Amino acid sequence: MTNHFPVEKLQNIETPFYYYNMELLEQTLQVIKEESSKYGYHIHYAVKANANKRILETINSYGLGADCVSGNEVSASLDAGFPSEKVVFAGVGKSDKEIITGLKNNIGCFNVESIPELEVINELAEKEGLVANVALRINPNVKANTHHYITTGLEENKFGIYIWDLEKVMDKIDELNNVNFKGIHFHIGSQINDLDSYKQLCTRVNELQELFEKRRAIPQIVNVGGGLGVDYENPDENPMPDFKAFFKIFDEFLELKEGQEVHFELGRSVVCQCGSLISRVIYVKEGVNTNFAIVDAGMSDLIRPALYQAYHKIQNLTSSGEEEKYDVVGPICESSDCFGKAVVLPTTQRGDLICIRSAGAYGEIMANQYNLRALPKGFYSSDL
C-alpha cells in the first residue's frame, strides 16, 4: 500500500529527496513514551540514525534524551533543544576536542570504552575544573544474530571493555579525582529481531552486577543500549516494532538494585519507517535477463544496499501496469550502485516516481557527495 504518499505533491519536487511521514514518527514516539513509562525507563535517541534537525526537534518534544557518538552530534542535539543532562556521549575514539565539547556543555554522561580514555577525560576535566560523569561500556560477549558489520557485543569487536578487565578499570577509577562513576553501558548490535538476544544480555548484566556489589560501587545507571530491528520487507503492515514486548523483556529478566535506572538508546526503531527516498526513473534499459530501471538517486543518497547488501522495499508510485522485473540502479560509476535486483514493479518508464522505503535511519545521515553529487534534501508530510 502507498496511500499515505501524497503522490501529486511529490511529483512537483525535484528528485532525489527524502520524504518524512511526520505523523508516523509522532505515533511511534507516543508508543515508545507510553510503553517505556510503565517501567520508569529512560529513553535516549541514537542521533547517528538520523540527525535531521526537524527530526531531532520532534523527538526532543516527546521528552527523549540524546545518545551521541561525536562532538558534532552533541552540539546538534543541544541546538535542537535536548537538555544537556539528557545527553550522553559514547564512542570508541573520542578526540580531546570532542570531550571538551561535552565537558563544557555539562552533558549527562560519557560512556567510556578504555582505560586510556578514562585517563584523558580525567585530565581534561581537571584542566576545566570539572568532574565528568562516566559509565563503563562493557563488552558482554552476547551474540546479536544480525549482520556481522553491525554486531558490536562480541569479544572480536572493537567496542567496549572486556569483562576480565573490569577490576583493573574500577581500580583506575578509584585513582582518578575528576571522573565520577555513574553507570554501566551495553550495546550488542543493530537490527536485532530475535528478542532472545536481549534475554541473554539481561542474564549477563545480572551476573556483572554482582562484581560491582562486591566492590560497593553500585552503578546508578544501567544502560542496555538499543538495536531493536524493524520490518524492511513489510513496512506498511509493521510500521513500528513491538515496543511493548521489547520493554517487557527487560522488566521480566533484568534484576535491578535499589535506586538503579534503566536507560535505552533507540535509533533505527524510532525513525526508520517514517522516511523514504523518492527518486525518478531516468531511463529503462533493456538487459539480458532483466531490464534496468535507472533512477536519479544513487548510493551517495542511500548507501545501505551497497555497504551492507541491505534490502529496501521499492515501489513505483505512478504506474499501475502489468508487473515486470527490474534491476533498480543509480547513476553512479560503481557496479555496487544498485538498490535491488529482479525487483517486481508495474511496467516502469522514464519519469515514473520510485519510492525506496524504510530509509529514515542511516539514509540521509550517511549521504555523501561522491561524483560531486548534491546532497538530498528533506521534505515533510506536515508541510505538504
UniProtKB/TrEMBL annotation:
Active site per UniProt: 333 (proton donor)
Location of the Orn/DAP/Arg decarboxylase 2 N-terminal domain: 40-271
Function: Specifically catalyzes the decarboxylation of meso-diaminopimelate (meso-DAP) to L-lysine.
InterPro entries tied to this protein: Ala_racemase/Decarboxylase_C, DAP_deCOOHase_LysA, De-COase2_N, De-COase2_pyr-phos_BS, Orn/DAP/Arg_de-COase, PLP-binding_barrel
Catalytic function, reaction form: meso-2,6-diaminopimelate + H(+) = L-lysine + CO2
Classification of source organism: Bacteria, Pseudomonadati, Bacteroidota, Bacteroidia, Marinilabiliales
PROSITE patterns: ODR_DC_2_1
Binding residues for substrate: 268, 304, 308, 334, 362
Protein name: Diaminopimelate decarboxylase
Top-level taxon of origin: Bacteria
Cofactor (UniProt): pyridoxal 5'-phosphate
EC number: 4.1.1.20
Residues that, per the record, bind pyridoxal 5'-phosphate: 227, 265-268, 362
GO MF terms held by the record: diaminopimelate decarboxylase activity; pyridoxal phosphate binding
Family: Belongs to the Orn/Lys/Arg decarboxylase class-II family. LysA subfamily.
Signal peptide: none
Pfam families, sorted: Orn_Arg_deC_N
Pathway assigned to this chain's UniProt record: Amino-acid biosynthesis; L-lysine biosynthesis via DAP pathway; L-lysine from DL-2,6-diaminopimelate: step 1/1
Modification type N6-(pyridoxal phosphate)lysine: residues: 48
Quaternary context: Homodimer.
Single biological process term from Gene Ontology: lysine biosynthetic process via diaminopimelate
Organism: Plebeiibacterium sediminum
Keywords associated with the record: Amino-acid biosynthesis, Decarboxylase, Lyase, Lysine biosynthesis, Pyridoxal phosphate
